[in-house]
Amino acid sequence: MILHCCINLCAVLFASPNFIQAGYITSPIAAPGLQDRATDRLDINTATLEELVQLPGIGPVLASRIIEHRRKHGRFRRPQDIIIVRGMSAGRFRPIAHLIRTS
């Protein structure tokens, strides 16, 4: 029992998905940070103007430029490719990097 609890504690502390995949965690309580966060991120290839505006530092003008760039040049391959859009910079990208994804 003690060993089982230690394994669960290690999985929580190190947030390793390998512990879950190997079946070591049997507790119904999921460790924070172990969910697939990609599904929580906004896909910048399909996002609407309203969704883009909700990102910190992205206003309606920049959001419309992102959509226009996507329309003219196609999908973004990587999230950091959004920096190409006029008005976007590395400084504006950093705060939203963990909030966006591409598909």
Write the layout of secondary structure elements.
Blueprint: H1 2-14, H2 17-21, E1 42-43, H3 49-53, H4 60-73, H5 90-93, E2 100-101
Parallel strand pairs: 1-2
Report on this model:
The chain has five helices and two strands. It has 103 residues and is mainly alpha-helical. The protein has two domains: 2-33, no CATH class; 38-101, Photosystem II 12 kDa extrinsic protein (DNA polymerase, domain 1). Strands 1-2 form a two-stranded parallel ribbon. Residues 1-36 have low confidence and may be disordered.
Report the β-strand fraction as a percent range.
under 5%
Q: Order of strands in the sheet with the most strands?
A: 1-2
What series of H and E elements makes up the topology?
Answer: HHEHHHE
Average pLDDT works out at 77
Distance between the termini: 43 Å
State the CATH superfamily name of the largest domain: Photosystem II 12 kDa extrinsic protein
Computed over alpha carbons, the radius of gyration is: 19 Å
Q: Which structural class best describes the helix and strand composition?
A: mainly alpha
What's the tally of helices?
A: 5
Helix percent band:
25-40%
Shape: globular
Give the number of DSSP strands: 2
